[in-house]
Every structure is written in C-alpha cells, then in structure tokens.
Amino acid sequence: MTVTAEPAVGKEAPPGATGPAPRRRTGRVRRIALPYLLLLPALLLELLVHLVPMVIGIVMSFKELTQFYIRDWGSAPWAGFDNYSLSVDFDAPIGKALLHSFFVTCAFTVLSVGLCWLLGTTAAVYMQENFRGRGFLRAVFLVPYALPVYAAVITWAFMFQRDNGLVNHVLHDQLGLTDSPSFWLIGDNSFVALLVVSVWKGWPFAFLIVMAGLQNIPKELYEAASIDGAGMLQQLRRITLPSLRPVNQVLVLVLFLWTFNDFNTPYVLFGKAAPEAADLISIHIYQSSFVTWNFGTGSAMSVLLLLFLLVVTGVYLVLTSRGRRAADV
Amino acid sequence: MAAPRSFVWSRRIFLTLLTGFVLLPVYVMLSSSLKPLQDVSGEFRWLPSGLTIRPYIDIWSTVPLAKYFVNSLIVAGAATVLSVAIAIFAAYGVSRYRFRGKRLFTVTVLSTQMFPGILFLLPLFLIYVNIGNATGIALFGSRLGLILTYLTFSLPFSIWMLIGYFESVPRDLDEAAMVDGNGPLGALFRVVVPAAVPGIVAVAVYAFMTAWGEVLFASVMTNDTTRTLAVGLQGYATQNDVYWNQVMAASLVVSVPVVAGFLLLQRYLVAGLTAGAVK
C-alpha cells in the first residue's frame, strides 16, 4: 500500500507557531511536558474506565457484597478470602459449577480458535493468487465480521429453533438424519450450536490477518522453490507456514482472548442462563453476580479469570518467542 | 506458473462450501423478513409462500425501533469520535517521543485488551452510581455513561493500531514540517494525520462497529429512554409469540448501515489491521 504525504509540507507557518530560537528554557520544559500532555486525555480515560474499575473490582472480591450493600458498597463487611475459597471449593456447588464452566470454556475456546484459524488460513492460502471473483469473495467473507453480533446471532438462534428452524428442517425433514427434531439451544447440542456460531463469526478475522501476512512473503521465494522442483504442498510447508509464524503468534493470542472472554454470543443465543453444556465463563460470572446477586463472589471469579488469562498469555508469549528465536537460528 | 487442475478444483469446492456457510444466515435473514407470519411460525420453508413487505412496516411500531436507532447512532458515533481523537494524540506522543513511563503506558494499554468485559461491568456500575449520588451527573442509564463505557473496548485498540500506523509515517516528514515553522501539533495535523488517513479510518470503523454491536453493557446500563438496538431487538419476542419475520427485518435494517460502510471502507480496515497486527 502506498501512503503519500504531499499535503501541507511546504506551506507557510501558521501565525503564532512557536519558533525554536528565542525562549530556549520554556522550549525545553515544553518538550519534556509535551508527550505527557498528548497522553493526558488517554491517561485520564484509561484511569476512569480501566484502572479504577479494576482496583474496585479487586477490592469488591474481598467484600461480602450482596444486594443489601449495593447502594453503599463501601460499608459492606470484609470477607477476607471467603469469596475466593468459595469459588475454588470444587466439592461445593458453587465451585463445582465454576470448574465445570471453566472446562467448557477451555474446550470451546480450543475448538473455536482451531477451526477459525484453519478456515481462515485455508481460505487465505487458496485466495493468495488472483482469480476471477476473488475481490467479490473477499467482500462476502467479511460479512460475518461486519454484521452486528446481535443481528447475526439472533438469526442463528432462529435457524436453531426446534420447530421452525432451518437446521432441523434440513437434518430431519429433508435428509432424515435424526429420528425426531432435536433441541439445539438447550441440552448437550447447545455446545455444538454455540461453536458453529462462534466459528462463523470469528473465522473472517483470521482470514483477514493471514491474508495480510501472505502479502508480505516475497514472490521470489516461491519462484526459487518451484525452480528447485518443490510442489505446492512443499511450498506451503516450507515457505508459507514458516513465514506466517509471527502473524500467527499474534493472531492465535487475540483469537484466544476474544473467544475465552466472549459474552455477546452466548448471551444473545441463550439468554441470561446458558445451558450447562455451553456455560461459558463470562456468562457464568454474569449469572453469579447479577442473577443470584452475589457480587463479591462474582468479582472473585473475575479476578481468578484475569489471573488465569495473565498466566496463559505470559507462558504463551515466552514459549512462542523462544520458538521463534530457535527457528531463526 | 499455472496452478494444477486438482488445485483449482479443490479451491472451487472449498470456497463454494465456505460461501454457502457464510451466506446461509444472510439468506435466512433476508427471506424470512419477507415472509408472512404463518410462514415463520411453522416449519421452515426455503421459499416464502408469498412475499410481503409488511414486516418492514410493522417493525417500527412493535417496538420503538427508531428511538433505539437514534440512541445507537448517538452512542456509537460519540464513542467513535472520542476514541479516535484521544487515540490520535496518544499515539503521536508514543510514536514520536521518548519519555519516562512510555513502556509502562503501552504495556498497560495492550494488556487491557485481555481483560474480560465482565470484570468492568459491576465496578463501572458502582462508580457511575456513586458519581451520580455525589455530583448529580446521571451516568448510569444515560447515553454519556454508555459512551464512556464503550471507550473501554475501542480506546486501547485504537491507540495500539495508530501507534503502528504513525510509526510507518517517515519521521523526516514531520521533522521537515517542524523545521518549516510548524509546532509539533501543526506537524501532527498537517503531515502525520493526512498520511495516516487509512489507519485513522480503520480505527474509526472498528470503534463504530464494536459500539454498534455491543450487548453486555447496553443491557445493564440503559433504561427505557436510552436503550440501544442491541437490547431493543429483543423486544420482538413477546410472551406468547416471537415475530420472527419482524426480528429478521429489523436485524437486516440495523445491519445494512454498518455492513455497507464496512464493505466500502474495508480496504482501509485491512490496511490498518495489517499495520497494527502484523508488526
């Protein structure tokens, strides 16, 4: 892509622009203060929407915060580590449900990220070279990414209806694969339904990023390889996939975090209480806080989730960057 | 070198299946939105028994869709403008200056990407209620509160992406502008911003899309007058019946502006994502 920057370079200085020479001292002070001034709005907002809420969230996780204290949460009694021990007591119902939800989320995330990556990469590799209709297909593939989540997921919810949905119509009425119309939004099938929707919605992002990554691979590499007699599969294995490594490192991490934290998809698909088989962690925490009104426990679960994500991300970054360094040698 | 026939065929099959998968919900949305109610309440039909535009008329009166539309527009628009404006200054500061705390700032911004939204929901709710009690500024339930909340999603991403983009603008250009007598802000707006327009557009599109599609905060932090489309669309399901044809018509109506805008600007978005993510 080319970025031209002709405008304004040669134009005369605006009136009142600061000249470098006359007041050197204030100039220096200004130069030191300037980056901070530029960051100030962002800092203030980050403080308001991220840091302060996070600190409050952590404080709340040590409090006995039920609906009685919500108006004046500062006066809620301290609970020490009670909320945490309640969350991780896997023999009691609350801890057991949380652990179950955690495993469901892990399985869901691994499958969804894997499938998104596979579909996105395959499509991007197939579309690496130009052919008729390529631009059109690319636009089509971006539709799931552009559609507002709720509009898309509501449509899927309609398709998964037991009595008037497309899925059962095709599987049961037209293909005769099932004895009776199945439930998709309750029971064990709900995991499959959630996975399908999540992959449908998520794979175009992988496609976009991998396609961008493919553009950075020099054409000469492929030419040299084909002169050496390497077939398409060999080129894929020896050139394409290794070159995509740094792109994949970021892509998989971002997909992982988004999928693991996804709230919108299960919430629109199932409502406030997800079926057990598809009880993703963020909706589980939402339910623990807002439906059963136990905000202290909900906060403790959020903090545990955050710690988990921090550890996984840290380990992942260390492992992948070491792998990358080894590959470079 | 021409691709082998087997490759062309496998490509055709794969891409056709994928297109079908992608467009299936779009087809269901479109065809169901043109069906009479008895068509969508019974067994699914691929083709409508009769075409009707009735759902497109009824959607506006079954729920106050226009009001939700305006709310979404105000909230998403304001969140976009704010996050882009703030991100431009911040990204310029980070990409052009060395200063104490720079690394801390970028790491903090980046790591907020991994925080689950649920972590902020309740604390923000409490902060808004407290600010409201203390100052009388109603943040909870108001559009302003929702706008600030949506910055949680778009601001870190915008800053992160714009840093990458501004760094791809050669430093000589804005230094030349400063030698010509512009101040740093003059250089930013006369040189760096014009050169980074694709990135800025990409960030704006992304910010707008996230705000337009957000569900969690919209469902907790809005009331009857400030409700956005994300929550309002659930109004077509009554206790007795779901007006699926109207749900589909409304989904289509709220999707068209973003999808059209996105497809028009996708070139920029792809370029912007590349600069941000591939680095």
TrEMBL record, chain A:
Keyword NAD: no
Record has Hydrolase as a keyword: no
Region (Disordered): 1-24
UniProt keyword list: Cell membrane, Membrane, Transmembrane, Transmembrane helix, Transport
Any Pfam family: BPD_transp_1
Entry-linked Gene3D superfamilies: MetI-like
Localization per Swiss-Prot or TrEMBL: Cell membrane
Ranges for domain ABC transmembrane type-1: 102-316
Coiled-coil spans in chain: none
Record-annotated membrane-spanning stretches: 33-62, 102-127, 139-159, 191-214, 242-260, 299-319
Membrane topology: Multi-pass membrane protein
InterPro entries per UniProt: ABC_transporter_permease, MetI-like, MetI-like_sf
Superkingdom of this protein's organism: Bacteria
PANTHER family for this protein: ABC TRANSPORTER PERMEASE PROTEIN, INNER MEMBRANE ABC TRANSPORTER PERMEASE PROTEIN YCJO
Family: Belongs to the binding-protein-dependent transport system permease family.
Protein name per its UniProtKB record: Sugar ABC transporter permease
TrEMBL record, chain B:
Gene3D superfamilies in alphabetical order: MetI-like
SUPFAM superfamilies: MetI-like (SSF161098)
Xref: InterPro entries: BP-dep_ABC_trans_perm (IPR050901), MetI-like (IPR000515), MetI-like_sf (IPR035906)
Transmembrane segments: 12-30, 68-92, 104-127, 147-166, 187-209, 243-265
Pfam families named in the record: BPD_transp_1 (PF00528)
Keyword annotations: Cell membrane, Membrane, Transmembrane, Transmembrane helix, Transport
Membrane topology label: Multi-pass membrane protein
Entry-linked PROSITE patterns: ABC_TM1 (PS50928)
UniProt entry tagged with the keyword Transmembrane helix: yes
Cellular localisation: Cell membrane
The UniProt record lists the keyword Ubl conjugation: no
Domain ABC transmembrane type-1: 69-265
Family (UniProt): Belongs to the binding-protein-dependent transport system permease family.
UniProt-recorded name of the protein: Carbohydrate ABC transporter permease
Organism field: Streptomyces ortus
